[in-house]
Amino acid sequence: MFVKAINDVKETLESLKSSGVIKGWELPYENLLTRVTAAIFFVTPADSEAAATEIENALSEYENFSYRLNTEKKLSDLAWRVTFSKEEKEKNTKIDSPVESTATA
User: What is the secondary structure of 18-74 as a DSSP string?
Assistant: First the structure.
């Protein structure tokens, strides 16, 4: 299925892979997706320290970009879970927020 927003992200990820910033990426169930907000991309960054920053810079142009470590490993074995939905962004912000962690401790 052709979804422009998903294809745009895929092109960005391919570019990052070609330039060595990421080792690989996956998009499970791609043929079922009808919008980028439902997509869950998985990415493994290169081993360089600058890779995370380069990935963030490249993907932050897309609305509601967020990521977290892929601890579940249910849909992919790659390191990061990358999404573009408001709900996931809020969830990922809470996970990464040291203030939130301290407040609940």
Answer: HTTSEEEEE-TTGGG--SGGG-EEEEEE-SSTTHHHHHHHHHTTSTT-EEEE--S-S
37-89: per-residue pLDDT in tens? Answer: 999 999 999 988 889 999 999 999 999 999 999 999 999 999 999 999 999 99
Q: Which uninterrupted H or E stretch holds 84?
A: none
Domain ranges of the chain: 4-92
Q: What is the pLDDT of residue 48?
A: 80
C-alpha dist (Å) from residue 3 to 12, 27, 31, 34, 45: 14, 13, 10, 6, 25
Q: How far apart are CA 98 and CA 95, in angstroms?
A: 8
Closest CA to 13 of 50, 54, 49: 54
Q: Give the three-class secondary structure for 94.
A: helix
Write down the pTM of the prediction: 0.84
